[in-house]
């Protein structure tokens, strides 16, 4: 089959690899119906250490179960399934607490002997804990929205949940990528009335307005901070969702958060240390939270709204390509020509 | 009157200064009955930039109102009062939300033209918002416990509240100073059953046991982390309260916190940057919280237990000195001869 590998900065290739097969009796093999490219894939696209082996890419998909191991109980051949961006056993304490990204026996796509999802098919370990079957045909127009439950919608929701957004919370979202836009949608869904979106790509911020943003701030740095502070009566935002991962976005978050407020990070941090001292987080009692979303945990909560059409998170996809065009898809996302690229194997 | 000033590392002097007087009609003048030395006073004692003017010291006291401005309504001459370690108007949004340390018009003792509390008396700005009158005589044996409501008990409580400690939470407290011990007491009060205290001064950890610690870990660094992990089934502690403020304590906190857990800092950080990246906070979804405690906010909650004797936080005081002995009190606390020093002006 064909699968996507990255070999170094800017070097993405679609190559032939062996077809996936059942290895453990808790596995399933899933044929991928739609995958996509994630903003977080652009981090290694910029900074990956060159590797002759390459790394399998892709961690979001909707697919159809082709085969299951003898011990698999909750899905069967022919089921349409959502695969969250981490696989997990569903039974350990962390899974039961809803933190599947820390599952005792789980892992991430493309790690060890598990493939990536920008591919034609994949072996899914711990299929019972990982996969969620949905009563939808693979030709359904709901597929793009279901695919967002694999990562970006769950990630936006995680940001808002970790920050304890409720009615009355003023939320600022830093970043107008797909995760930032999903954070807007999620904050709105949890009742936030004032949602400031910091971003400067009009097409994206327009979609942000559609998802619930009440104010757009295109400026960055000191100007952007001043603009958000002015919008929030001088004090800043109760909650700031940082959906980028670079240090200037962190600094922006510190600049616009209100004393006693929360910075919730879902952009994968591209730094190891950050300011947390008296003058930044400690003095004004700022809480720093967030991390990789346990997307699996949120599917039960978020799926009904997708199925009944009350939300349409699939609107973040603005381009669809075939699997062999994935390298071009990375380029288009990196150049901000495309917001989020759907991949049809 | 006599008052304490610090001029540089190790250089504490008790000097003659002008008696405080009413400046604004919202002021009170308070004669200090008992003050004390705080672990956080030892930070400048180590690292203050030398100054010929000096800094007024002390931010905790119980006193008696001597005089009030015309606009003061809630306290009157002769009242015994607790002064929280920040003064605040009690009316701004931050005060109404219980974040008096971020009061729009408030400040900290020893800043601007407001004196420190290791002194004979002090001018209290915004007396209505700041002072809490308690129906106790100044000769009462409850005075030391009431004095802890000025800072350390409120600070320990803040650490536990910000970390949302409830029954069933496993809590590790890093630091066996007065704030660490108050965090133990507070975690116990909020229902925590398993409380690991990391500290190596037996007299202090014995008091920690009395306040509710179930386990003591004397080791530090990798050994200390391994010991806490062993005590917590390998996964670490839901909540870690960092009551020191130095980087090794932060690193210890990161080492012992459970995935999905909370690090709550109440030791004033002596660093500006810290590890917060994928490998420390982000990957395991750790929340970092804490800051200066709004001690004023917690007095209503904590006072009844002090008055009825169900808690005895005043046990953290193990030495009492006169005001002129304050320099010796700093030395004794810095040398770990004394846990917390009560000052009798």
Automatic annotation (TrEMBL), chains A, B:
Segments passing through the bilayer: none
Keywords on record: Metal-binding, Oxidoreductase, Zinc
A Pfam family it matches: ADH_N
Domain Alcohol dehydrogenase-like C-terminal: 178-290
Cofactor (UniProt): Zn(2+)
InterPro entries per the UniProt record, alphabetical: ADH-like_C, ADH-like_N, ADH_Zn_CS, GroES-like_sf, NAD(P)-bd_dom_sf
Domain Alcohol dehydrogenase-like N-terminal: 25-127
Gene Ontology molecular function: any one: oxidoreductase activity
UniProt-listed PANTHER family: DEHYDROGENASE, ZINC-CONTAINING, PUTATIVE (AFU_ORTHOLOGUE AFUA_2G02810)-RELATED, ZINC-TYPE ALCOHOL DEHYDROGENASE-LIKE
Family indicated by similarity: Belongs to the zinc-containing alcohol dehydrogenase family.
Name this protein carries in UniProt: Threonine dehydrogenase-like Zn-dependent dehydrogenase
């Amino acid at each position: 089959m064909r699968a996507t590998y990255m070999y170094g900065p800017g070097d993405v290739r679609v190559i032939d690899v062996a077809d996936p097969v059942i290895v453990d009796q808790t596995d399933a093999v899933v044929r991928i119906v739609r995958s996509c490219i994630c903003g977080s894939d652009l981090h290694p696209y910029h900074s990956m250490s060159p590797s002759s082996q390459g790394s399998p890419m892709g961690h979001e998909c909707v697919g159809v179960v082709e085969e299951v191991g003898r011990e698999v109980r909750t899905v069967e051949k022919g089921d349409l399934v959502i695969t969250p961006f981490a696989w997990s056993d569903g039974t350990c304490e962390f899974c039961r607490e809803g933190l599947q990204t820390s599952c005792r026996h789980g892992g991430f796509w493309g790690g060890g002997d598990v493939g990536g999802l920008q591919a034609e098919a994949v072996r899914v370990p711990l299929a019972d804990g990982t996969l969620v079957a949905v009563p939808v045909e693979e030709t359904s127009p709901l597929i793009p929205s279901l695919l967002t439950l694999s990562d970006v919608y769950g990630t936006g929701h995680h940001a808002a949940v970790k920050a304890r957004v409720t009615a009355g919370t003023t939320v600022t979202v830093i970043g107008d990528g797909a995760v930032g836009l999903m954070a807007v949608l999620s904050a709105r869904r949890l009742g936030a009335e004032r949602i400031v979106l910091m971003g400067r790509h009009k097409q994206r911020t327009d979609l942000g307005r559609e998802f619930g943003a009440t104010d757009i701030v295109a400026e960055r740095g000191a100007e952007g901070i001043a603009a958000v502070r002015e919008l929030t009566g001088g004090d800043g935002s109760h909650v700031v969702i940082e959906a980028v991962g670079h240090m200037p976005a962190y600094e922006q978050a510190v600049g616009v958060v209100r004393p006693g407020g929360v910075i919730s990070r879902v952009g994968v941090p591209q730094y190891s240390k950050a300011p947390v001292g008296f003058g930044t987080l400690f003095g004004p009692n700022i809480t720093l939270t967030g991390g990789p979303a346990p997307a699996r945990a949120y599917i039960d909560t978020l799926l009904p709204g997708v199925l009944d059409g009350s939300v349409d998170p699939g609107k973040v996809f603005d381009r669809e390509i075939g699997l062999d065009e994935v390298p071009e898809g990375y380029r288009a996302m990196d150049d901000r020509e495309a917001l989020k690229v759907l991949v049809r194997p």
